[in-house]
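Q: A reviewer asked whether we had any structural model of the full assembly, not just the individual parts. We don't, so I'm hoping you can provide one. Inputs are below.
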Amino acid sequence: MTVTGTTFDDDTRRGWRPGRPSRASLGEWITANVILVVLVGLIVAIAIYDTDFISANSVRNILTNSSTRILVALGAGIVLISRGVDLSGGRMVGLAAVVSASMLQTETYSRQFYPDLPALPLILPIAVAIGITTLLGVVNGLVVARLRVPPFIATLGMMVIAFGMTAIYFDQPPNNSQPISGIREDLSALGTGQLALGPLSIPIIIVIAGTAAVIFWVLLEKTVFGKNVYAIGGNPQAAQVSGVNIVRTLIAVYAIAGACYGLAGVLEAARTGGASSRYGELYELDAIAACVVGGVSTAGGIGRVRGIVAGVLVFAVISYGLTFIGINPFWQQIIKGVIIIGAVAFDMSRARRTR
Amino acid sequence: MTSPSTVSQLPPVMGAMPPDATPVARSAGADAAPAPLLAMRGITKSFPGVTALDAVDLTVRAGTVHALCGENGAGKSTLMNVLAGLVQPDAGEIVLAGDHVRFASPAEAMHAGISMIQQELHPVPARSVMENIWLGRFPRSRLGLVDHDRMRRDSRRLFQGIGVDLDPDARAGDLSVSQVQLMEIARAVSFDARVVIMDEPTSSLSEHEVQRLFGLIADLRAKGVAVIYISHKLEEVMAISDEVSVMRDGRMIGTSPTAGLTIGEVITRMVGRDLTDRYPGRQVTQGEVLLDVDGLTSPVPGSFRDVSFRLHRGEVLGIGGLVGAQRTELVEAIFGLRSIAAGTIRVDGREQVIRSPVDAKRLGMALLTEDRRASGVVPTRSVFENTILAHMPRYANRMGIVDTTRARQDAVRVLGRLRVRTPSLRTPLTSLSGGNQQKVLFGRWLLWDPEILILDEPTRGIDVGAKFEIYTIINELAAQGKGIIMISSELPELIGESDRIVVMCRGRLTGIVDRADATEATIMRLATDSLDDEPSAVVPGA
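A: Here is a predicted structure for the entire assembly that you could use as a starting point for your response.
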């Protein structure tokens, strides 16, 4: 066999970094980043239909609508990369939303969840809400890694449990399952406030989601933990023999996912100005769909943050853009479904060709 | 790197030789078949960046065993994949029994009478033997349902015909590796195969099972089937084949009758240079005891029990035995992958409890596992990521962030030392040849710089040149005062590389042999001495 490529010595000389399409042709780049192409294509198509679509306002709306979804998808994504799946995300969003909103209502509001609760510092209820979902994530991790329950089953159980917990909490007198509203302004500010950056004003919620995405990128691509997650997803036995602590890593994976869902839940309450036990319903499936469309393999070991974010944005562009140009919202469902199947079918055919 | 002059120095190639030149009159068809059963001409195949096959010719006669030799990456597997319809050639033609053929899929090749038994077997473990054999062409009853009775009858008749004793209703997952292989051979024969390709068929078999396989191959040959036999084990090639074709760097170097060849000549053709000694010599300077295993016993009945041995610094300790000797289980227990019921492990004189590979690594141990695909390679990751997998914390700062520049320099250094051939560090590991994959996995542990290196079949499926390099590295490590445990099922390798050889039989240590006293006979006797009463599920053909 004659190797006409370079030897690996060249990699160090050129300071090659993973993922940089240094020698790849444009065609290869497009194939490898099909999700970005789909995203741009969608935007262009909608803009051709109605040029008003291209505006700072659209961008802001799409990003704002995507923010909590990005958090949930990051959580679902890291679990998928570890060769797992997490169905409990949506219900954890609901739990965190209800818990944080219940403790952060204005004192003058007539129907308070805790009528006698003194005004708490903002961070405390948020920490409690995220703490609870992180703990539930740890339980997920323990059940998967220690008890060896398949992730689908473990997190299906947790999904049901988390909803039960939310419903019981929500049903306490005097609330009796009434929607929680009248939340404090400092919480609302996280969901609807703007951060002035010179002439630009950026919604705080976008900044939070963006920061989370950057942290995830560093975590997955740069740290030992992230590389271990990829290795476990790619071949758990090889990782184990190499001395990777699988149990600890998987517990951390599910815990991190839980923290993401918790933060997303708090922000959902902040964004909408309230909460109910139905919050977050089916978010986990939207998140998995976004991951899969963004190139995360359900077989584990493959997936990148930019793909996950792009996957969420594709769905946000569809729902915002198609509503913008006045297409019947039920059509959006069909288009979303076609994109989910089409994206994965394309990936599979690419994998077949390169094998 | 190929010099054209080597080609001309070869003994006469097949076509120039009268068909009865084979001195050993083994074949039924050899004397009566002037036209070859199979002729591949000018087969060329390029993959991105690589010319895998460069105008390769191969001629195979009916009723012969035709060995195909070459280093990893020489193009043997690609050539056979072309023949079996798995790979489409860029150019060239295939003539089967006088007809020009072209196979778009493995199914087409199979129905034309070409069956390939892959190196890595993929049965459907949860289904029965007969369902595995007739998969894709189940017999149907008049109602359109699967006719299980007929399938069972056909399977029995098939097994009888080739002298294989398998239960058609056994679950494929319950079979041993060798039984799965027999099942695959039966499946190949069931297509009325005229050409059967076997890619490294003995890599998972014990000596005993190899003899059974050879019996079966002889039967196929007597029935006029052409067997193309790919193996790195040249002793086997010499024992079973009628002709040997050697490939190197995607080209056919030549074909000769086996009888006129020596192993040395085959190796010379494979590597394109003389390799006089297959085992590099080593100065043995044994140091103090590094690892002391005493009375180690598995909680699993029938697994290893009461095993005691010592590993010294600077020593290569071989572990020999047949499949089922529980050698892999023993070293996995030492490495913390399996639990132990009794016994102690001392490292550097101190008793240790090793509960996981994390503990074992902390004590300076490394384990290169036997099954590359199952527990070695991370297929989704690059050569680089696979290399640094076991020692990322070493390159991490306090935040856990990996210093890839430093890690890459080390990876390049260690992979360069192992002479890994890869287009780049970011190439997916699975796109390298088997030998290069194994060298990368070896590199994974060399980077870690362990004190005790446990190697489980380190050269399985690796070509001669790469083997020599791996032996050289083992010797270097021993010279540095490390202790090396090497499980091997190849007796010449075991005797050639080890200072002492621990021999196991069905979980018991039956002897420790010094290199000076080690012969294949002594080791085989120790490996089999209590095996006679073992009831066997597979008996060779009558």
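A: Points you may want to mention in the reply: The first helix of chain A runs from residue 9 to 13. DSSP finds 15 helices and five strands in chain A.
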